[in-house]
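Quiz preparation item.
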């Protein structure tokens, strides 16, 4: 069985909320983030999720939080909490398989099969309901951590 994150249809969202969503401006970016790099089988990969994930003892996310939480790769799935609260999805898929939002186990399998070189020691989660332009400074900080960990590929998991 395949699990996923269920999204509501826009028509099912209350009219006031729907009008807010439809009125949001999409950000534009002046740079092209794509860069050339080594083949995938030579890359060290980290996960960056917007599922509002954190370890059980970490501070939960609050709406609008612009920071991130660090999730060590050896953290047991039972110790990872999703504090992202939204009426726009259910958690059934995540509760059945954490890899829906934080696919570290799939990356480990890929490393074992030689599809990627290695899995980073640390992974990261943001609160997905935050406006991207407010997260720019934090994203630059996170990029420095990824570079220090010799990560050269990031799997972005938007929730």
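Solution:
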């Amino acid at each position: 069985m395949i699990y996923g994150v269920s999204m509501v249809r826009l028509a099912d969202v209350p009219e006031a909320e729907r009008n807010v969503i439809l009125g949001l401006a999409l950000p534009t970016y002046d740079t092209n983030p794509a860069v050339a790099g080594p083949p995938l089988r030579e890359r060290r990969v980290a996960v960056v999720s917007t599922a509002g994930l954190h370890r059980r003892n970490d501070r939960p996310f609050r709406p609008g939080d612009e920071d991130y939480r660090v999730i060590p790769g050896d953290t047991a799935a039972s110790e990872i909490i999703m504090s992202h609260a939204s009426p726009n999805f259910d958690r059934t898929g995540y509760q059945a398989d954490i890899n829906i939002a934080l696919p570290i186990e799939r990356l480990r399998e890929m490393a074992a099969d030689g599809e990627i070189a290695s899995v980073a020691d640390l992974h990261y989660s943001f609160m997905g309901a935050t406006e991207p332009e407010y997260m720019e400074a934090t994203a630059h900080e996170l990029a420095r951590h990824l570079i220090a960990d010799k990560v050269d590929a990031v799997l972005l998991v938007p929730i």
